[in-house]
Amino acid sequence: MKRNTRRAFLKSSSLAAVALSLRGSSLLSQTSSSSARIDLSPSEPIATISPELYSHFIEHLGGVIYDGVWVGEGSKIPNVNGVRKDFIENMRSVQAPLLRWPGGCFADSYDWRDGIGPRAKRPARSAFWNQQDSNQYGLHEFMHTCRAIGAKPYLAANLRTQPSRDFYQEIEYCNAPSGDVLSNSAAPATPNALAAQRSANGDRDPFNVDLWGVGNESWGCGGNLTPEEYAMEFRRFTAWTPTYGSAPLRFVAVGPNGDDVDWTTRLFKALGANPERRHLWGLSIHYYTSGSPTKFAAGDALAFNDDEFYDLLTRGSLMDKVITDHWTAINSVTGAAARAHSLTADDTKPVKLVVDEWGAWYGKGTELAPEYNLSQQSTLRDALLTAITFDIFQRHADKVGAAAVAQSINCIHSLMLAQGDRFCVTPTYHVFKMYLPHREAQSIRADFSAPAIPNPMGGTTPSQVGGNSYIGQLPGTKTLAGLSGSASIKGKNLTLTVVNPHLTQPMTTEINVRGASIASAKGTVLAETDVHAHNDFVHPNAVQPKAATMQTPVSGRLHHTFPPASVTALEVTVA
Ligand code: AHR
Questions:
Q1: Which helix (H) or strand (E) holds 490?
Q2: Which terminal residue of the chain, N or C, has fewer Cβ atoms less than 10 Å from its own Cβ?
Q3: Ligand 1 close to Cβ of residue 357 (< 6 A)
Q4: pLDDT tens-place string over residues 111-152
Q5: Cβ(108) to ligand 1 under 6 A?
Q6: How far apart are CA 461 and CA 306, in angstroms?
Q7: Does 468 contact ligand 1 (Cβ within 6 A)?
Q8: Which residue puts its alpha carbon closest to atom 3 of ligand 1?
Q9: For the chain, give me the number of helices (H) and strands (E)?
């Protein structure tokens, strides 16, 4: 077969892009397949991909905790010590690494002491999201959930309505060892009071929580603070926090609203005013994508047109810019001088980005019921956004230390939907599974060449996300990458994940591994004829992955056709 040279290919790509600008669905369906190319470079490693990139978030909000996670020990719904069994099993099957809790905005109105001790005696309180919280699900129930899943806890501390003493004591309650503890003075050994209280509440062994978010969205629901005010609070909260055992604490500072570089720059300048910033491990980033920039529409999780489809994916793709912008901002402020002052617990390591809230956030209209606040349906479009987002994280494995989807069940960009005894997984869940082989592999350079897709809505400034007018997001760009993805390698096994966002056009692609040849390949694909396809309680398996149709590699190269609107995971063996 005659191969395109790279130059000829790029020329044909740009012609195809012009042709596509005349688009309309009927025209597109008649267009023949374009060729594309993917070049993988194992000799250009980026970093090891942290499993924590695929983490989770659950908040006391609508039906997330109550019904989604917690059904109670007496429930007829299958449960493990009160936690929904389906939730545990599916979180296990995606190997959830971290679970963030209790918020979100909820965290900054939450008193952790309300959720410990005998459940019958716990107080019901007014809480964020205009709801009342029964406190039946608290710290111990959360830790048991993490244990059952095999996930590590990531706790968000209350910085708005509690003083730093409560934070210190929450750390102490979670991590202090039980039994008599020798002090470093001449005093006799005594039990730690908070560890004894934890023990009396059923958990003698410490929870060993190392990862702590210090507040949440402190520029908004977390207190409307300026970066300078937050820097002062961050120092107060984290200076000389108690540590136990060998695991160092990892603190995550509140980062920007979307791409607000001014927040990050000013925050790091303010933190830099005092060299002692112990255990600053990461900077949180929240970046959501709304359904349509031009209208805040009811039901837009399911009802969207072609333009809105492309525009959402374009704005979601700007996660790449958000990561790069904030990485540049941190490093331009801190630099070598700040490192010398121990900006992190280990001053040889730079601060990581922690994208602990991301996803597509739609208007109301598809929630399970009115009281399931912010629950929404998820279609194949959301699966594509999930894959695009993971590919971005993987390409930036040197910068992103952890990320958490908002939120795992019954919420914005969920993997699972549950209502009473009804349960299903969403297309997004399948993408989490398809991306498992990337974990702890070496992310490598991957070059994608394919005709760009025009985005007529590009440049429109979005007004609001979901019900949230203050979450900032970026206007989309005029074009969307025709193919995007990422690659990683572990020994001779290479994983390549690819999104073809084109609604009608399959993309026949030549895949080449620089300096090696492809011996064999197999794959899984998530694709449906209609991008509105989704699972629900009546059709729980309407969208699920299938084995990809593969060709045999020829002369060490693989030709593969990525179907329209698809996510593909290829496992390639190189010789
Ligand atoms: O995930 C829902 C909300 O979005 C979170 O509580 C908050 O942090 C963000 O504004």
A1: strand 484-490
A2: N
A3: yes
A4: 999 999 999 999 999 999 989 999 999 999 999 999 999 999
A5: no
A6: 18
A7: yes
A8: 104
A9: 12, 27
Does the Cβ of 494 fall within 6 Å of ligand 1?
no
Say if residues 427 and 378 touch (Cβ distance below 8 Å). Answer: yes
- CA dihedral over 459, 465, 470, 472, signed as positive or negative: negative
| Cβ of 103 below 6 Å from ligand 1 | yes
User: Rounded mean pLDDT of the chain?
Assistant: 88
If pLDDT is split at 50, 70 and 90, which confidence band does 349 have? low
Classify 390 as helix, strand or coil. Answer: helix
Residue 334: the pLDDT is: 64
pLDDT given at position 187:
78
Identify the CATH number of the domain defined by range 2-574.
Answer: 3.20.20.80
Q: Please give the distance, rounded to the nearest whole angstrom, from the Cα atom of residue 557 to the centre of ligand 1.
A: 45
CA 104 to centroid of ligand 1, rounded, Å = 5
The predicted-structure confidence for 49-62, as pLDDT tens digits, reads as follows: 999 999 999 999 99
The domain segmentation of the chain, as residue ranges, is: 2-574
- DSSP for 339-364, please give it: HHT-SSSSTTSPPEEEEEEEEEEPPS
What is the model's pLDDT at position 29?
A: 34
Cα gap 546→219, rounded to integer Å: 44
